[in-house]
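Hi U.,

Before I forget, here's the chain from the pilot set. I'm dumping it here mostly so it's searchable later in email.
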Amino acid sequence: MEMPKWLERIVSPRPRVIEVIALLVGTSVLIAGCWTILRMSPADFTREKILPILDVVVSALGVASLLFLWAQLRYTATQHKLISYHEHFHDLPKPANVSAMYAAMGRLGIERPLWHSPLTIPQRDAILNDTAPAQDAAHTVVREYLNDFEEFAAAINSGLVDDEYAYHIESARALNAYFGFKSLISFWLVEERTRADGNRVVEIAPSDFYGELGKVAERWKSRKLAELARDQKRRHRGISGRL
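Structure:
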């Protein structure tokens, strides 16, 4: 179960938010401590009364420094996630798999499917029934193509790659890969689920067939549709304003 966005912001705030909190805590307590000491009468200016105030101020500054350290660690972790994308997935999907997929689809006369224009059932069947040699068969090269995105999605879901950054760079291709070939993925899942081992039917979980990619694609699709709806509303308001 995914954590709600508002709860995620509380549990894992951005480094800049942590830095602001740390600055407010440190500055507020320091000002309050100095103000308290300055307003004390000479008779109250004793070691017994000054030390507790200084203890609170020093403790607050210690908390602020820990918050600054947390912000730095969060910033470093974010940087590592951004670097991880460019180190491992800068050529997503692999050029060889892209070439093989385009060659197979071209041979079968099938246009590259898109998330809003997925494979039709006849196109799916043409891929499944391709009689080319095993390594060049359409169903084989499509699997290899999708495997690249599955690995990428697993890295996002495990936190190795920054989700926000990946969305802005790869959302279109990831959505096209999953929803474009969704009928083929669903067929493979059903096929495995109904495969018999003697008299026993093998049960396969949906997550075993591009489940990581499915999680990312479903999440990104909802976000993409919301963005498109907002853009459409803005355009509509702009047109209404000019009329």
